[in-house]
C-alpha cells in the first residue's frame, strides 16, 4: 500500500462535486433529480465563441502557447479592465490559467506557505480553505452572519490581522451567499488593508452576474496604493457559460505574476490554446449574450427568493449576485424528515435528496453550519418543481 503525502492525505474532495456525483447515481437509476448543486450556467456557450474555437483549430492554433497565455488574450484582458472598470493593467501583469480556480491556486502557491495566515471570511467558497492548507499556510476564518448580510465589517478584519497574516481572500459577488459588497463597504475594508501589511486576493468571477441594478466593484481600482498588493482574479466560466473551457486569469504586481507563471510553467505548461482563442472571442466579441443570460438569472433569482421565503422555518438574504440562494435551515434540526433524524446541514441535504430527490449542498463545507445552498443556474420548471418538493419534505 503506497503512503500518501501529508498534503494529499489532508485534502477533502470538493463538496459540491461530491453532491453532484450522488445525484448522478440516482439519475442513472431512472429517478428525476431536482439538481441545484452545481455552480455552472446551464446555457450553452454562445455560438460565436464556439466558432472561434473551431477556427483556431483549423488555423493550427493547436500548439503550446507562452506559459502565461497568449499575448492577444492578455492584451484583450487589459483592454477589458480599462473599458469596464477604468483600471489599467499591462499584459505583463496578467497570467492566464486553467480556470480561475487554477489562478487562485497559483496565487497561493506563489505567496504563502507554512507559518503564514490567510484570512477567509465565512461563508466561503469551498475550495479556498483546502487550497490554503495545500500550501501549508493556515486559514483564519472570520465568521459573518445573516444579520450582517454575510459581509465582513472593517472591525472584524482589523481584529483578524496578525503579524503572520499574508493575505485576505475576498469574494464579491459571493459564492455561496449571493451577496455583493457595495463600493463603500469595500472602501472601508481597503482602508484597513492599507493600514496593515497584508495583500488581497479579490475573486471577482461573478462580477457580471449582478441584480437589482447593483454594480460590482473592481477592488484594486478603489485606491491607487492597492495596486501593489492586490491580485484580481476572474475568468470566462460564469460570464460566458464556459465552465468546461477552463480559462481564468489573475492580474497583479509584475514580480508576483512572474512567480505565478513559473509555478504554472512547471506544473501545467500553458493554458489550452484553443480555449484561449475562444476566450478572446468571448471578451472581444458581441456582449449581448452576457446581458441575456444575466437577465435570465435575475428572473430565476426572483422566483427562487419568493418561493424559498415562503417555506416554513427558512430564511434567506436576497441574493444580489452570482446564482446561489443561501438559506437558513437550522430551525429544522432535531426534526425527523423523510424518515431521518435531522441533526445538521449534511443530514438535512442527504434526507432531501433521498426522500424528495432535491439536490442542494450543505452549508457546513462553506463554513456555515445551519444553512444550505441552492444554485439557480437551472430552468424555471426545475426551480418550481424542486421547491415544491422541498416544501412537501418540510411538512
Ligand atoms: C467563487 C468562485 N471562484 C472561482 C471559481 C472558479 O471558476 P473557474 O475555475 O471555472 O474559472 C468558482 C467556481 O465555482 C467560484 O464559485
Short key terms for the protein model shown above:
Aspartate Aminotransferase, domain 2, Aspartate Aminotransferase, domain 1, alpha/beta, 15% strand, globular, four-stranded antiparallel sheet, binds pyridoxal-5'-phosphate, seven-stranded mixed sheet, 395 residues
Q: Strand order, biggest sheet?
A: 2-8-7-6-5-3-4
Largest sheet data: 7 strands, mixed
The quaternary structure here is single chain
Structural class: alpha/beta
Question: What bound compounds does this protein have?
Answer: pyridoxal-5'-phosphate
User: How many β-strand stretches?
Assistant: 15
Relative strand content: 15-25%
How much helicity do the residues have? 40-55%
Provide the CATH superfamily of the largest domain: Type I PLP-dependent aspartate aminotransferase-like (Major domain)
Mean pLDDT, all residues: 96
How many domains would you count in the coordinates? Answer: 2
CATH class of the largest domain: Alpha Beta
The shape, in one word, is globular
Number of helices: 13
Description:
By secondary structure, this protein is α/β, with parallel strands linked by helices. It has helices at about 5-10, 15-30, 45-60, 70-85, 100-110, 125-135, 155-160, 185-195, 255-265, 275-285, 290-310, 345-355, 380-395; strands spanning about 35, 95, 115-120, 140-145, 165-170, 200-205, 230-235, 250, 315, 325-330, 335, 340, 360, 360, 370-375. The protein folds into two domains: about 5-40 and about 290-395, Aspartate Aminotransferase, domain 1 (Alpha-Beta Complex); about 45-285, Type I PLP-dependent aspartate aminotransferase-like (Major domain) (Aspartate Aminotransferase, domain 2), CATH 3.40.640.10. The protein is built from 13 helices and 15 strands. The protein has a seven-stranded mixed β-sheet with strand order 2-8-7-6-5-3-4, sandwiched between helices. Helix 3 crosses helix 10, helix 4 (about 70-85) runs parallel beside helix 10 (about 275-285) and helix 5 (about 100-110) crosses helix 9 (about 255-265). The protein is globular, with a radius of gyration of 21 Å. The protein starts with 5 loop residues before the first helix and ends with a helix. Bound molecules: pyridoxal-5'-phosphate. Pyridoxal-5'-phosphate binds near residues 125, 171, 175 and 248.
Amino acid at each position: 500500500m503506497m503512503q500518501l503525502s501529508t498534503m494529499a492525505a489532508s485534502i477533502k474532495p470538493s463538496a459540491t462535486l461530491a453532491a453532484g456525483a450522488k445525484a448522478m447515481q440516482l439519475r442513472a437509476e431512472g429517478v428525476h433529480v431536482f439538481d441545484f448543486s452545481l455552480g455552472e450556467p446551464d446555457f450553452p456557450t454562445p455560438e460565436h465563441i464556439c466558432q472561434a474555437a473551431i477556427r483556431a483549430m483549423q488555423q493550427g492554433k493547436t500548439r503550446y502557447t507562452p506559459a502565461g497565455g497568449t499575448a492577444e488574450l492578455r492584451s484583450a484582458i487589459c483592454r477589458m479592465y480599462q473599458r469596464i472598470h477604468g483600471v489599467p493593467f499591462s499584459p505583463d501583469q496578467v497570467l492566464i490559467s486553467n480556470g480561475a480556480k487554477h489562478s487562485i491556486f497559483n496565487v497561493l502557491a506563489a505567496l504563502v506557505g507554512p507559518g503564514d495566515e490567510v484570512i477567509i471570511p465565512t461563508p466561503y467558497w469551498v475550495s479556498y480553505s483546502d487550497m490554503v492548507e495545500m500550501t501549508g499556510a493556515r486559514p483564519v476564518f472570520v465568521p459573518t452572519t445573516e444579520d450582517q448580510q454575510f459581509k465582513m465589517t472593517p472591525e472584524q478584519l482589523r481584529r483578524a490581522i496578525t503579524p503572520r497574516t499574508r493575505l485576505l481572500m475576498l469574494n464579491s459577488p459571493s459564492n455561496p451567499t449571493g451577496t455583493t459588497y457595495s463600493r463603500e463597504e469595500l472602501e472601508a475594508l481597503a482602508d484597513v488593508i492599507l493600514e496593515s501589511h497584508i495583500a488581497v486576493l479579490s475573486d471577482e468571477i461573478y462580477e457580471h452576474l449582478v441584480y437589482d441594478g447593483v454594480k460590482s466593484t473592481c477592488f484594486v481600482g478603489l485606491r491607487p496604493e492597492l495596486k501593489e498588493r492586490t491580485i484580481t482574479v476572474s475568468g470566462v466560466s460564469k460570464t460566458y457559460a464556459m465552465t468546461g473551457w477552463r480559462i481564468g486569469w489573475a492580474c497583479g504586481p509584475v514580480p508576483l505574476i512572474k512567480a505565478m507563471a513559473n509555478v504554472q510553467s512547471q506544473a501545467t505548461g500553458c493554458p489550452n490554446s484553443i480555449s484561449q482563442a475562444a476566450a478572446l472571442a468571448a471578451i472581444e466579441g458581441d456582449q449581448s449574450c452576457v446581458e441575456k443570460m444575466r437577465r435570465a438569472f435575475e428572473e430565476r433569482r426572483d422566483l427562487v427568493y419568493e418561493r424559498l421565503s415562503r417555506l416554513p422555518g427558512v430564511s434567506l438574504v436576497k441574493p444580489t449576485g452570482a446564482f446561489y440562494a443561501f438559506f437558513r435551515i437550522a430551525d429544522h434540526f432535531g426534526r425527523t424528515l423523510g424518515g431521518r433524524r435531522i441533526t445538521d446541514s449534511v443530514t438535512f441535504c442527504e434526507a432531501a435528496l433521498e426522500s424528495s430527490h432535491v439536490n442542494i449542498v450543505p452549508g457546513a463545507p462553506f463554513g456555515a453550519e445551519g444553512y444550505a445552498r441552492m444554485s439557480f443556474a437551472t430552468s424555471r420548471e426545475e426551480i418550481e418543481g424542486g421547491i415544491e418538493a422541498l416544501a412537501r419534505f418540510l411538512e
